[in-house]
Amino acid sequence: MRTLVVCVDRAGDVARSTEVALPVVGRDAVESLVVDLGYRDPEDSTVNCLLEALRVGADVEDGGDEAVVAVVSGAADTAVGADRALAAQLDELVAAHDPDTAVVVIDTAGDEGVVPLVESRVPVDAVDRVVVRQARDIESTYYLLKQFLADEELRESVLVPLGVVLLVFPVLLTVTGSLALAIASITAVIGAFLLYKGLSVDERLGAVSSQAREALYSGRVSIVTYVIAAGLTLVGAFAGALGVSGLGDAGAFVAAMAFVYHSVPWLALAALAGATGRLTDEFIREEGVRASYLNLPFGAVSVGLVVRGFSAYFVEQAGVIAPVHTPALPLVAASVLSPEERLTAYVLLGVLVSLVGIRVSSRLTADGRGRDETP
């Protein structure tokens, strides 16, 4: 079996430094080239690459195979021209020696791009990369830095924040006059950025934006109800803040319960609006409504009732709200509900609404207008 041991010089150092005809073929010719090139530039790593090709050729012959040691060089000023020159030299080698396999010897990361050229002409058994021992760390660092700068996402994630920090830090130091405050501000910004990237907030925001755009273009009702739900949520927060503003020194727990008591009806309406919009979209599609979408409106109302009941119990016990007075009925006299009775009424009403939701969901699923989510 005949093996082509080819030393690749993509940068064209051999063509520029010597006047030999390319490709260089044969052990004697390569040895002469090593002496010539080493005499001109002893620090050139191509010399080590040529010596490695000679060593690999000797190993192949020791294994009983015939070895053809050759050197190809990109004798051109442009990258495309260099690769074309290498391709022409490889064609000449294959035509002259008809090798069965090839071993490619390279000395830089850029030379690895020539491997597909060799593989397209002859099967490649191995790629031998030569790194000068004294320059191993420098070569590896350069290669990693080159790969890092070629990655656009890494550049945006690392270099941009680092540049912003280097620009903002002296400004903060000049304005505040405090080194500790400037460092603390920069650290807080870096921490926020790391959380932003670590929690994939950018991807989540991009997904929300695309979903909202898709909903607008497709004419979904839910996009309108979501806006209504957001407005009701703001109203609920404002109502809760107003309910807390007049409490004075009632305590943190009572203030929190008062906020929940005044805001939860609006929050429940917000959840009901969003759920109703999604449910309407499912009905419009006429593909059957999922059971979870049928249960969601009833669940929002029932949870709102239960939370309202518990918060009412605490604020009534604290004297923030008045007890409930029931009107007189034909067979029932007027009365005042205790906090426990009021809580019980809210809880029972919430459970009743939840049971109604389950009943409606099961009925629609059985009638074929809804679909079960179980496979």
TrEMBL record:
Keyword Transmembrane part of the UniProt annotation: yes
Membrane-spanning segments: 154-173, 179-196, 223-244, 250-272, 293-315, 343-361
A Pfam family of this chain: DUF373
Keyword Transport on entry: no
The organism's place on the tree of life at top rank: Archaea
Keyword field: Membrane, Transmembrane, Transmembrane helix
Matching PANTHER family: DUF373 FAMILY PROTEIN, HYPOTHETICAL MEMBRANE PROTEIN, CONSERVED, DUF373 FAMILY
Protein name: Putative membrane protein
